[in-house]
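Morning!

This is the sequence you dropped in the shared folder:
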Amino acid sequence: MAGMGGSPIIILKDTRRESGKDAISNNIMAARAVANAVRSTLGPKGMDKLLVDSIGDVTITNDGVTILKEMDVQHPAAKMLIEAAKTQDKEVGDGTTTVAVLAGELLKRAEMLIDQKVHPTMIVQGYRMAAEKAVQIVKSISIDASEKDRVLLEKIAETAMTGKLAESPDSKMASYAVDLVLNAVENYGGKKSFDMDRVNVEKKVGESTMDSQIIEGIVIDKEIVHQNMPRRVENARIALLSTPIESKDTETKAELQITSSTQFQQFMEHEKMRIKEAADKVISSGATVVFCQKGIDDLAQHHLANAGILALRRVIKKDLDKLARATGATIVTGLDELKPSDLGTAALVEEKRLGSGIMTFVTGTRNHSATLLLRGGTQQVLNGLERALDDAIHAVADVVEDGKLVAGGGAPEIELAMRLREYASSLKGREQLAVIKFAEAVEIVPKTLAENAGFDAIDKTIELKNMHGINKNNGLNAYTGEIQDMLKMGVVEPLRVKVQALLSATDAACLILRIDDVLASTKTPPPRGAGGMPPGMGGMGGMGGMGGMGMPPGMGGMGGMPPGMF
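The structure's back. Tokens below.
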């Protein structure tokens, strides 16, 4: 911009600016690109993505949030869409692909309205009204579900896992998911609450997914520390330690001067005595099994083995907490505090070889606990199985907590689209246009289900609308292409997943639509030299000869050393 006398005035330095329609169009394009990347994974016939990270690790999945997390997205608007999907995963644990696809379609429809000179603020207002109405509608068509109806809970788990690696005619994963959830549900003042920390899942490569099993107890992926220790302890008295079994370091730094072999011998004897004292404290407590979060000294291992104690070291804090809950033991922070009353109990602690590894099983615990041991041919299969199981667990937990579910197969979305159009006709302002576009956008879910199953999306959507007059639970059977009652088929989803998906997608779309100016810095950060200094610093050898500090430029840094020294 020219100032007085023709001299330029720089308003924005090293900044790239996009404003108005260009900014909105670019943001919509970036967000839609992310949505399109995961769209083909939606539904039981969704395809998988093979992701390779920077160090070459391979992930094969059709789990929306996993794909979005692995994508190295640079555009800020696209990042907002990914954040919406992450929120969906954090809040309800399923429906992440739906959020991304729906948000992308809402933005596509909004761009059509912007081309028709409808202001983004009016679109945002209309979308908010439509989302609020949509939540009311989907709640009104929901069905009550009881946690005692195990068959229904298993159907929910099956629906959540459909299209993922866990699906097979004789798979017991749905039953396992229900077992784990019911084991981790607590009653707070008449309200059911699910605690994910109480869900115990361990993975071990080997055998097939059909060999996965529920173990009544806790499984620790560790082996005993000393070969002379017993491999099996019945009626175990269990000590849980978050302190090492070794000689204690002094509080302050100390230095010893040893001038003879006798002094060295005395010092070593003293160290051995301290380690033996530490081991004796554990032995005298009456413990027969020890799980230690930190290290166990070699000499201490020997003393514990002689006493017939089974010990594991480097047990992670999460596993210690699980053991404390199951066995009734108290996690002790200092060996001096260990008392017989701090010990927990279990009928059996046993080390077993599984595949190429060894695991320790704690069964017959004081408080009921269960661990799902997942097996699979490769690590990728196991990881995929765990992701599918995670979705199923959260879906079942949502229904147990809320007691509400809806039909699947695109049935709620078709009902929403039809009733939102009726709602739009009752509005008088321009918001009516946005509500109609919202209704059109919601139809992307059944359309995508049909496309991914290899059917004509438009034909199936029209057929669904015609059949909804007969039964609002009619949805698309992705295997046959027929329109069927989803409730009778057992294709059901938690109400919470649908509600959260509608809200998350609307929030993400509205946030992106409200941006009309993008100011991005084009200035590149200075490269870092050795030791984190800019290159010119040269390790204090290239500081411009330190001429500014009163030294001759030829000094080349400190003490007149040649620059090459640094």
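Headline: The longest strand covers residues 344-354.

More detail when I'm at my desk.
O.
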